[in-house]
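Record type: ASSEMBLY
Status: queued
Input:
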Amino acid sequence: MPSSITSDIIKPPSPPRGGGGGGGGSDGWGASRRASMTGLMVLLAATTMAFAAFTSAFVVRRGISNDWVALPLPRIVWANTAVLLASSLLLELARHSLKSGRRSAFNRYWTAGTVLGALFLLGQALAWRELNTAGIFVATNPSSSFFYLLTAAHGLHILGGLTALAYVDVQALRLRLGPGKRTAVDVSAMFWHFVDGLWLFLMVLFLVWG
Amino acid sequence: MSSPVVHAHHAPQGFIRKWIFSLDHKVIGIQYYFLALFSVLIGMSLSLLMRYHMVHPDAKVAWFAKLWPTAAQGGIMTPELYLSLMTMHGTIMVFFVLTTAPQSGFGNYFLPIQIGAEDMAFPVLNMMSFWTTFLALVVMVAAFFVQGGPPLSGWTGYPPLSAIGPLAGPGEGLGQTLWIVSIAIFCGASLMGAINFIATLIDLRCQGMSLMRLPLTCWTWFVTAILGLLGFAVLLAAGVLLVLDRSAGTSFFVPGGLLVSDQILSHKGGSPLLWQHLFWFFGHPEVYIAILPGMGVTSQILSTFSRKPIFGYRAMVYAILSIGFLGFMVWGHHMFMSGMSPYSAMAFSVLTMAIGVPSAIKTFNWIGTLWGGKIHFTTAMMFALGFVSLFVTGGLSGIFLGQPALDLYFHDTYFVVGHFHMIMGVAAIFGMFAGTFYWFPKMFGRMMNETLGKIHFYITFLGVYCIFTPMHYLGIAGNPRRYSDFTNFDFLGKLLPVHSFMTQAAYGTAAIQILFFINLFWSMKYGKKAPMNPWNATTLEWTVPSPPPFDNFGGQHPVVNHGPYEYSVPGAPRDFIMQTDPVDVHAE
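Status: finished
Output:
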């Protein structure tokens, strides 16, 4: 059984044909790659909707009552933000290396990006611990409820992204990153950039409204 | 591994890989279909219990006491038990029947074939999506067997009732928790399904299958998938907030100073209306998730059995798209009574009325399709015509409810119950029946019995009108919904004969469904062998054997040269041109 969802696209055996009518034509790697990209975009749309719902709840909940106390952001989240941005940058360097055929550079950059991603998650856990020590828990105030909720929901997406990054990394280190796996490289990197952007949005939300 | 020669893929041989954890979209479609059939039996039984109780609120039924030793002590159903039956009826019907069969069942089976693909874009994801739905159903049904029983808060799960735990009543403890968990799992399953449907339709269409050559069924499954994608993501988020309110002590939805059962709750500052906004942002598109696939099936069937092209194909496509688009902007019409600003109410009302335009376009085009056609009254056609009838009836009462001034009166009366059962419930179910009779030969390789089918149709059609039309009258007379007992109110007592009539009609309609089940299972084994194209229809599923081989087209790649509804084309050799017929078929 295929080990990842993106590698499990059906692969019609025929070689690419000239496009006839307006139909897509489910032929060869082109269709499987396109479907993966579409699937990713659709997934990101769903994630966006879920976080839009959380955001509107955040804004409404803050607006309707007078019990909201601003949450002192743990200092470590700034470091975490830098780590996450750096990991995205490393993944881009890795993809650039792969395009110009420098496989070992790809492996180094991609591994470093993945490690930084894991480091971000660790940093977020430390942020939670910092709040805990300060006596701020989930139910302490709506501001802290939302902080824990949003960081947890974002963390779950980070975890999913990390799994994809690690999968690509293992394939690369075991020299199994054939042309068919390039889609996995692109899809996981794009997902990672998205959760990176999502985190920047959440930081703005915490800073402006929190 | 991608060799250039055309070859058929071989189906997995083991029973488990072939029928249980199958990756084949056709098997998964059938799995979804039977999951919905199983669920509809539970949902229907619950509705019969409710209808019985409304007419005989004081009856002592021995087996009630056996089934529910605490909730029906001495065999008399408590109001709480009634509410829990109502909650489970609504939830199971909306999620596990109306969302599951038309979209995930028929859509899974026929979307890939109709666009000329071998399978869905992500078969493993497809399998996971079904088994996640199955898990959601198991968790939901489990609520019947826990202490306190199923929740009382309706399929809409309004807080504070749903958010404050066992204090709010039996079923509000573990039962409500299971309900939310089940819905969250279901959201995940629907999201996986939506990703698959959208990617498949966009990227796996065969050569020549342009967007404007898609059968209307594919258009409706596509738009439904988009609605599910955007809607279920929001419901999932709202469900997470509700779980936190219940178990982590947060106050998203629970207001401060709430006195429940002589206890002041520690929550403060939350807003129950916040839940309503999030819920109905999903809840209204959910109505279209239930009905759109039925519209697609109806279009397909009306065109096939009128032997005429669908009237205004492009208008139909734009109507489907605008119904989907507008569906996201009208959630506020479920909340006219929530104290919203009259200006917001007016905006929601105008947008709601606007949905009447694409809906009327569709109805007009259906009638235009029938006009002057050589109509074949097959059972599938009867159910499609029934769908149009129910859609019009249910739609008209929607115009009343969309007016804030009238809704003040109709809100929470049986008028609303009559409205949504007609349009969302029964119309969608008729779409499922129509689809079943139309596609059964393709799915199971045998024909269903037309005589049994027609008897089933006529009695069901009459029956549902007898059940749900009087509800409008009851609503106008002021009969509130969700009450378990009307005998203690003078003005409601006089309406009991109407309730009694509806209950009798419900018994009869439920009983005749046995005929459908007999027809379904008998035909699977003993029905007449189905040819490849029993209805002389044009779309791609009728170009392959019944049932289709494992990879649908036996390793061939279909090429589409025609639109989906080319019936009775002048100059053509037959009264239908299949989508794969050669371009110059007219010249022959």
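Annotation: Residues 1-6 of chain B have pLDDT under 50 and may be disordered.
Annotation: Residues 63 and 75 of chain B are 7 Å apart (CA to CA).
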